[in-house]
Specification:
BirA Bifunctional Protein, domain 2, 412 residues, alpha+beta, elongated, OB fold (Dihydrolipoamide Acetyltransferase, E2P), 2 domains, 18 strands
């Protein structure tokens, strides 16, 4: 008998079904028991008569007939004819994952991640996150971008500095990649012109805040033949509208469960220069400044452009007055995107490397692409966990990471 998913069974009144999943909740009333069976699609109530119910959390398979009952969740339930326990818990779990509200703190949820991920609210976060990354891919593919996969073990950092995780690579030192920036630019110059990647990046930042991870997923893109950073911002604005509409359409149940609302971008995203933003809030764009900016502008999303050169990587295209042709996107008080136009002139790039106090050694492969001729280009990077966090109103970016890696956590 072919397996039926829980959500499908609600619409099969009068038919026999074969369910497989977890006994999420069990109510034993003596002689009759109600078992809420959960699988990847959702849950359905099963009625078991004249037999002992399985322990909560058991993996079970059920054969029975669906009947209508408005008192049951979804308006239908399965009258059990056969129930087999495929696996039972060997000890009581440290968390009651079936509870709508987990009473444990975040550290306990992360420490017992294998169990806490069974909670429907926590799972909902990652269903939405999956749709965010899928929307990113779908939008860019439809617009002629090619997905690439770049190395995560590198010989040098893309942005210099000390925020690198070193490792031994046979007889020499290597590092975990801070970003795919060098490789994205090389691939633009290869003739692909438009490329993107969704992959982990690593930052050895000694932060211990609600907004930082040392390993996170970066959604990167790079595009050739642009006229300026406005082209990249225009693309991101259109892309976020596409992604958010996809989440609204495909994740309605998850959004309702989490009490989250998707922004309406039909009116566009305001754009301010860095100097205008600082003047408006009367302070620098530190984390508190970012929180104040969206409120001051009266928009959930704000582009900030023309950052000072000292705040941007060496490959950023300069602009008059010590500014750059770059931008950040602030979403509900948190920077979720950094991007801009890149230097495409070989000579200008060499000058910028020298001005930043960096060495060419280790960058030869990168510089070779510019020697061969590079078109005007630009791109951006979106932190997937931060985007998820702000979209769903989570209090800590670790809630948006399946198995977060921060300054203190290396397991599970």
């Amino acid at each position: 008998m072919k397996r039926t998913l829980a959500r499908e069974s609600r619409n099969m009144v009068g038919e026999r079904v074969h369910l497989q999943g977890w006994a999420d909740k069990v109510r034993d009333l003596g002689g009759i028991a109600f078992v809420v069976l959960r699988d990847r699609s959702g849950s359905v109530q099963c009625v078991l008569e004249g037999a002992s119910p399985p322990p909560p959390g058991s993996v079970v398979q059920v054969k029975g007939r669906v009947r209508a009952d408005q008192r049951a969740p979804g308006g239908a339930e399965v009258v059990v004819e056969e129930m087999e326990v495929l696996a039972s818990p060997v000890e009581a779990p440290p968390l009651d994952a079936a509870s709508p509200v987990l009473r444990a703190g975040l550290e306990a949820l992360l420490e017992h991640r294998a169990v806490s991920l069974r909670n429907e609210r926590i799972r909902a976060v990652f269903r939405v996150q999956a749709e965010l990354s899928q929307g990113f891919r779908s939008f860019l593919r439809e617009r002629g971008f090619c997905e690439i996969h770049t190395p995560k073990i590198v010989a040098t950092g893309t942005e210099g500095g000390s925020e690198l995780f070193p490792l031994r690579y046979f007889e020499r030192e290597a590092f975990l990649a801070q970003s795919p920036q060098f490789y994205k630019q090389i691939m633009v110059g290869s003739g692909l012109e438009r490329v993107f990647e969704v992959a982990p990046v690593y930052r050895a930042e000694k932060h211990d805040t609600s907004r930082h991870l040392n390993e996170y997923v970066s959604m990167d893109l790079e595009m050739g033949f642009i006229e300026g950073p406005e082209d990249v911002m225009d693309l991101e604005e259109e892309m976020l509208h596409y992604i958010f509409e996809s989440v609204r359409e495909r994740c309605g149940e998850e959004l309702r469960l989490l009490g989250s609302e998707v922004p309406d971008l039909s009116g566009g995203i305001p754009r301010l220069t860095y100097d205008e933003a600082v003047s408006l809030i009367g302070r620098d764009l530190d984390p508190e400044g970012e929180r104040q900016l969206c409120a001051a502008v009266g928009s959930e999303l704000v582009f900030v452009t023309s950052f000072p050169a000292e705040q941007r990587p060496f490959y950023t295209m300069p602009a008059p007055g010590g500014r750059t042709r770059s931008f950040d996107l602030i979403f509900r008080g948190l920077e979720v995107t950094t991007g801009g136009q890149r230097i495409h002139s070989y000579d200008m790039l060499l000058e910028s490397i020298e001005a930043a106090g960096l060495r060419r050694e280790g960058m030869e492969f990168y510089l070779e692409a510019f020697k061969a001729g590079m078109p005007p280009h630009g791109g951006l990077a979106i932190g997937l966990e931060r985007l998820t966090m702000k979209l769903l109103g989570l209090g800590n970016v670790r809630e948006a990471s399946l198995f977060p890696r921060d300054r203190h956590r290396l397991t599970p």
